Amino acid sequence: MPLFWWWLIALLAGGAVATGATITFWDRIREAVTSWLHRNSLARSVLMDAWVWLDRMISGVRARIFVKRRHHERAACVEEMSLPMSEIDDEDVLYELRRRGRVRVEALHLVRSR
Predict the structure, then answer these.
(1) pLDDT above 70 covers what percent of the chain?
(2) What is the C-alpha separation between 14 and 63, in angstroms, rounded?
(3) For the chain, what are the domain ranges?
(4) 66/51 Cα distance (integer angstroms)
């Protein structure tokens, strides 16, 4: 097989791995929210809002997942995780992280899509 084809296969495989990391991250967020709902016997309740705060840190990004069930209820932090900046492929989110160091990403659609 010519060297060109090996290079192309390696490039495509690298892209698949990068895409898989991003999907895994958003799947982790979805799983964290649904798991929290199940642990708290709220699987059939309706969420009012869900979001992720991403903070740029020296070693990467800290992600904190929040959910809110009622308007006057305080938001609950479902999970906190650290991840490398390379796991985020959303250009708008990366831009805001670099510019402001912090960004809020709405995540309710991730839970509703299930």
Answers:
(1) 71
(2) 24
(3) 3-112
(4) 5
What per-residue string of b and e applies to 34-69 under the rule 16 or more CB within 10 Å gives b?
Answer: bebbeeeeeeeeebeebbbebebeeeebebebbbbb
**Segment 17-73, tens digit of pLDDT:** 444 444 566 777 778 887 887 887 776 666 778 888 999 998 899 999 898 888 788
CA distance from start to end of the chain: 43
- The 3-state secondary structure of the chain, one letter per residue: CCHHHHHHHHHHHHHHHHHHHHHHHHHHHHHHHHHHHHHCCCCCCCCCEEEEEEEEECCEEEEEEEEECCCCCCCEEEEEEEECHHHCCCHHHHHHHHHHCEEEEECHHHHHCC
Q: Which residue is it, tokens 């991730």?
A: 110
Q: What does the block give as tokens for 37?
A: 């709902």
